[in-house]
Amino acid sequence: MNKEDLCFTPATKLADMIARKKLSPVELMDTVLERAEALNPKLNAICTWTADQARDRAKKAEQAVMKGKKLGALHGIPITLKDLLFTKGVRTMGGSHIFATRVPEVDAPAAERLAAAGAISIGKTTVPELGWKGCGDSPVTGISHNPWKLGYNAGGSSTGAAICTAAGIGPIHQGSDGAGSVRMPAGFCGIYGLKPSFGRVAAYPTGAADQISHVGPMTRTVADAALMLNAMAGPDDRDATSLEASPPDYLKGLDKGVKGLRVAFSANLGYLKVDEEVAVPVAKAAKAFEALGAHVEEVSDPGWGDPTDMELFFYASWYAASLGPILDKWEKYMDPGLVACTRAGFAYTAAEYVRMRLRRFEYYDKVQAFFGKYDLLLTPTLSVAAFKAGDLIPSHWEQHPWDWIRWAGFSYPFNLTWNPAATCPCGFTPAGLPVGIQIVGRRFRDDVVLQASRAFEKARPWAEARPKL
Predict the structure, then answer these.
(1) pLDDT tier at 207 (50, 70, 90 boundaries)?
(2) Which of 217, 263, 297, 337 has its CA 20 to 30 A from that of 371?
(3) What is the mean pLDDT of residues 64-80?
């Protein structure tokens, strides 16, 4: 195959080719790095390179193959790691001047496990400052670009990971999702992204965000996401909230389908605005589940209420706690929206925070009761398609100094409730920008979300669609 096709080949196939000595890990790494280095100046997806280290590890991976050593599930596969994920000995800026020279002394669990499975990181991917928003720019790295339309938002906070996936810079990329940060950029960039059940992938160190951030895979195919989740998932004593039980093999039963499942489709969750160019392809995509044998019911309002004020309260509170003590020193170097968000959090008391947490638990109860009736929920991934890079909010939406969450309101509820949620590409706007459909499942049923995603992928294939770069 030619070099571009090799870069777009799924990890499941690449790993098999490497294991059967049909593909050299060195050849694969050289090809992916060549593409990454050629495209990065226009896309701005990778902010810290580990190319020399990656080439060295590819040589060792090839030696292991030739010596007949036992190989991991991702042996020799090039990946990237998000610039929020701690990596031992590799700069981790978090898209902020505050941490521009930080080099962690430890690996986060996901980085450890991917390496143990044989994956080889080529670098760290761009993020908005400290992952605070759903847009792809930061004071340190500047603007990152959507591969489908340069000059347009690639989403955040797993910005560079989504760009690399869509642009064929290797098959699998690590993301994390505290308010939709896997699903938003995946939706904008036309790829597959999964936010697993909370605790499924251990996280360390623990942040201030009160147990909402989930580490997950970003890929072009569902099978690749299952393969990557297999490698990352499992308990870790450093994470007090990691799930105790070892997860199942997500690749087994992946083609089980959705026949007989009870599926709800909500076009707006009863309170969200959605642009027509997004709403139309999502509604068509939801009908595909009926043809696949699921029992689909349209639910105009799930009855949970609007959690937007709760979302904004928590967001501002968390940043006020983590950045408040250093804000005076660093404010002039920070994203102005993050500064405004942080200052908004100064107004809240500890008592108000506890009351809002209690309200969160009530909201959790309502959502879990809903999933007592349904196996899956379908929604749009986002209310909008990608808009101009550098903007916080689309120009045709009401503006706000820092509240971008309104156009991403479909994702955040399931960070609060810890349910697994994925986004699948389901079409394009008239301007050729990707649209995604979100698939939400019951807690701990990541397998069902993956199976539903795979069934939809087989019915409406998307992986061969490539941006023209």
Answers:
(1) confident
(2) 217
(3) 98
Determine which one of 96, 121, 157, 242 is catalytic: 157
Q: Which residues contact 123 (CB under 8 A, 6 or more apart)?
A: 36, 46, 47, 48, 49, 50, 51, 54, 80, 81
Given 24, 82, 383, 453, the catalytic residue: 82
Structure tokens at 369: 């009761």
Q: What is the DSSP letter of 201?
A: B
Q: How many CB atoms lie within 10 A of CB 144?
A: 30
What's the average model confidence in pLDDT over 189-217?
Answer: 94
Q: Is 181 a catalytic residue?
A: yes
Q: Is 197 a catalytic residue?
A: no
Q: Fold for domain 3-459?
A: Amidase signature (AS) enzymes (3.90.1300)
**Residues 243-261: pLDDT tens digits?**
988 888 999 999 999 999 9
Residue 427's identity, in one-letter code, is: G
| DSSP summary character for residue 233 | -
pLDDT of residue 399: 97
Query: What are the structure tokens assigned to 159, written together?
Result: 């910005």
C-alpha dist (Å) from residue 35 to 7, 182, 219, 347, 452: 8, 23, 17, 48, 32
Q: Partners of 436 in the beta sheet?
A: 425
What pLDDT is attached to residue 392? 98
pLDDT of residue 383: 98
Verdict on whether the full-model pTM lies above 0.85: yes
Average pLDDT of the residues of the chain: 97
C-alpha 53/C-alpha 468 separation (Å) is 30
Rg (CA), the chain: 21
Cα separation, 38 vs 32, whole angstroms: 10
Q: Which pLDDT tens digit goes with each residue over 354-401?
A: 999 999 999 999 999 999 999 999 999 999 999 999 999 999 999 999
Q: Does a cis peptide bond (omega within 30 degrees of 0) precede residue 461?
A: no
Q: Which of 144, 158, 181, 242 is catalytic?
A: 181
> Measuring CA to CA, which residue among 86, 133, 151 is closest to residue 412?
133
Label residue 257 left, alpha or beta by phi (over 0 means left) and psi (-120 to 50 means alpha). Answer: left
Sequence-ordered alpha helix ranges (H) in 324-375: 327-330, 336-345, 350-370
